[in-house]
Design a protein that fits this description.
Layout: H1 5-13, E1 18-19, E2 34-45, E3 48-57, E4 61-62, E5 65-66, E6 69-75, E7 82-83, H2 97-100, E8 108-112, E9 115-122, E10 130-136, E11 143-147, E12 157-158, E13 167-171, E14 187-192, E15 199-205, E16 216-218, E17 223-225, E18 228-239, E19 242-252, E20 260-263, H3 274-277, E21 285-287, E22 291-293, E23 298-305, E24 309-315, H4 317-327
Antiparallel strand pairs: 1-24, 2-3, 3-6, 4-5, 6-7, 8-9, 9-10, 10-11, 12-13, 13-14, 14-15, 16-18, 17-18, 18-19, 19-20, 21-23, 22-23, 23-24
Bound molecules: beta-D-mannopyranose.
Length: 336
């Protein structure tokens, strides 16, 4: 695929999130015994910023329980966080989760109807990767609801409310017929009457629309804006040095989210700093969501860097929406 001069100009002048000078905000040094403090769910509870921080332990266990754990980190200023040493989520010892959930990472948090809904991928086990739904009101007590996708589906991401009478979600099935057209991960959209039973599956986006999203892509929970559902996505490029994870954004039609109305062709954050390029998994910036502040026209994103630590990147909310619209919808993917 050859690039026109317009395409090149767009990639060069595209929207970029700005890293906070104090990055990385959280590192393994902030949690005794941690090898990684990374990819966090994120939301606001009152005036507090809440991160659901994934922790990989050097020993492979935490307090005798194997696997990663997920901990609540709270902050009044969005910069300085206290991590609770009590796990909020860890490997459960009851069915069916005991067999399918080896430690929650990549949590997606969606606030709706007075609950914080949390979806995380069960995985790291022979059953494959699937979506587990639960909820909390206070980030102290957590209620498992159900397994809401078959393997392999890496973290369904909920929309924050019903649209046209249905709950909706973005899916990321893994390895949909890997071949030269479909590689490792595509995005789909689905609907449900009750958050547990899902159907009406529709294809949404395949990788390959930009060099930074050549191999696989994945969603986060959409954010409602006046001009559409803003969704931060990740994209992966493959080189002889391995995978490189970048971030971009797409905009879905408010009434008909099966329709993409904008998609950044340039990445909005790519692994460039030392802490993003070196770590447990090098060359990774990855996010499980973002916090929108419409009154301040700001988007605040806590992202995992090199699967090792957490940084903050911010930018104009309306600017990002405009960047999606400026680049426009993708070419329609489909069978040749
Ligand atoms: C993805 C997720 C992320 C991770 C990324 C890079 O599949 O599991 O947690 O940041 O891989 O390792």
């Amino acid at each position: 695929m050859s690039m026109t001069e317009d395409d090149q100009a767009r990639l060069l002048s595209g929207y970029q999130l700005q890293r906070d000078d104090r990055n990385p905000l959280l590192t393994p040094a902030d949690f005794p015994g941690a090898a990684a403090v990374f990819n966090c769910g994120q939301t606001m509870m009152g005036d507090e910023t809440i991160l659901l921080v994934a922790i990989i332990h050097r020993s492979g266990h935490y307090r005798g329980v194997p696997g990663a754990t997920s901990h609540v980190a709270r902050s009044a200023d969005g910069i300085h966080f206290q991590i609770n040493p009590e796990p909020f989520l860890q490997r459960p010892d009851f069915e069916p989760y005991r067999r399918i959930d080896q430690g929650p990472i990549d949590t997606r948090v969606t606030y709706m109807e007075d609950w914080y809904y949390i979806v995380h991928p069960g995985g790291g086990c022979p059953w494959g990767t699937l979506g587990i739904l639960g909820r909390t009101k206070d980030f102290e007590r957590y209620e498992y609801l159900d397994v809401i996708s078959l393997p392999d589906n890496r973290v369904p991401c909920l929309f924050p409310g019903k649209i046209g009478g249905y709950y909706m979600r973005l899916d990321r099935p893994y390895r949909v017929a890997p071949n030269e057209h479909h590689t490792d991960g595509n995005m789909w959209i689905a609907r449900s009457p009750d958050l547990v039973h899902w159907g009406h599956f529709r294809p949404l986006l395949t990788p390959g629309f930009a060099p930074w999203a050549q191999t696989k892509i994945g969603p986060t929970s959409p954010i409602r804006t006046e001009k559409g559902w803003l969704t931060i996505i990740h994209g992966v490029a493959l080189s002889c040095a391995g995978y490189r994870y970048s971030l971009g954004a797409m905009l879905l039609d408010l009434e008909d989210p099966e329709r993409i109305i904008g998609l950044t062709r340039g990445s909005i954050l790519s692994p460039d700093t030392e802490y993003e390029r070196q770590g447990v998994v090098p060359n990774v910036v990855f996010t499980c969501g973002a916090i929108a502040e419409p009154d301040a026209d700001r988007i605040r994103m806590y992202y995992g860097a090199a699967d090792t630590c957490i940084g903050l990147a911010t930018g104009s909310l309306s600017g990002l929406v405009e960047a999606c619209l400026r680049d426009g919808p993708p070419d329609e993917g489909g069978c040749n």
